[in-house]
Design a protein that fits this description.
This protein folds into 2 domains: about 5-200, Kinesin motor domain (Kinesin), CATH 3.40.850.10; about 205-260, no CATH class. About 40% of the residues lie in helices and about 10% in strands. The protein has helices at about 15-30, 40-50, 60-75, 125-130, 140-145, 170-180, 185-200, 220-230, 235-245, and strands at about 75, 85, 90-95, 100-110, 205-210, 215-220, 250-255, 255-260.
Length: about 270
């Protein structure tokens, strides 16, 4: 509809800008780039180029289907936007000599890690947490030992838990399908979900201080057992790694970095 049309011949849309870029690229025989701009605009530009000169294979679909996964794990609801990127993302689209889409690569940076454990009252954590809790794939809730109530997990319920314009259950199905299109094996996909579920369970870890000591113990092993079951390491090592002093100042204990503190210090040892 937009290919080769003048601006006054079709409704105003980013497809018009995309067609102009494609035309200029053909004239100078150079390689084009995309990726600057807001999320939705970027998706439309990629969609346009993918459909303009189809390769007849899965490349276009893989490039487009990268977005549901990236948005699930990197986008949140903020005060001003229901689907806001909380990480830097730069997408390069490479074209062949005939202007057909050849390949795409992506750079990510500056992930807002603090949002995993903390949100403002009118904001929400990363979408993936609420998608998994939607109950749309009950077998996932069973495998991840999750209750469908987000208020059961401290790190994901500090702000709002729903978005008016987003159906978390349907979004979960789109994300799950996108993993398949991108070539994730069933085991790889399960591992990603398990790690995400483990983070939610980890937020419910509770500790109690030993009498007359500066050291704490895990209040109950139930949560630690769930975390380590999903993340595939030993529960006792997790509990020890986050509560005990380690004599060696440079010890990595099954993925947990620990640091020796003087016993006279009043600071608690955190992994």
């Amino acid at each position: 509809m937009y290919k080769g049309k003048k601006r006054n011949e079709v409704p105003l849309h980013l497809f018009s800008t995309s067609d102009n870029l494609n035309h200029d690229m053909m004239m100078v025989r150079s390689r084009g780039q995309s990726g600057a701009g807001k999320t939705e605009n970027t998706k439309k530009v990629i969609q346009y180029f993918a459909k303009l000169e189809p390769l007849g294979g899965s490349l276009e679909e893989q490039i487009i289907q990268a977005n549901p996964v990236l948005e699930a794990f990197g986008n949140t609801k903020t005060i001003g936007n229901n689907n806001s990127l909380r990480f830097g993302k730069f997408i390069r689209i490479h074209f062949g000599s005939t202007a057909k889409l050849a390949v795409a690569d992506m750079e990510t940076y500056l992930l807002e890690e603090s949002r995993v454990i903390s949100q403002q009252a009118t904001e929400r954590g990363y979408h993936i947490f609420y998608k998994l809790l939607s109950g749309k794939k009950p077998e996932l809730n069973e495998a991840l030992l999750l209750s469908p109530d987000p208020k059961q997990y401290v790190w994901v319920c500090q702000g709002v838990t729903g978005v008016d314009t987003m159906e978390d259950g349907e979004e979960l199905l789109l994300t799950d399908e996108a993993f398949d299109v991108l070539g994730f094996t069933p085991e790889e996909k399960r591992s990603v979900y398990k790690l995400t579920g483990g983070i939610m369970h980890f937020s419910n870890m509770r500790f109690k201080q030993k009498p007359r000591e500066e050291q704490a113990d895990v209040d109950s092993t139930e949560v630690a057992d769930k975390v380590t079951h999903l993340m595939a390491f030993n529960s006792g090592e997790l509990q020890k790694g986050i509560t005990y002093y380690i004599l060696n100042p440079n010890v990595i204990l099954k993925g947990f970095w620990t640091t020796r503190r003087p016993r006279s210090s009043s600071s608690a040892l955190l992994a």
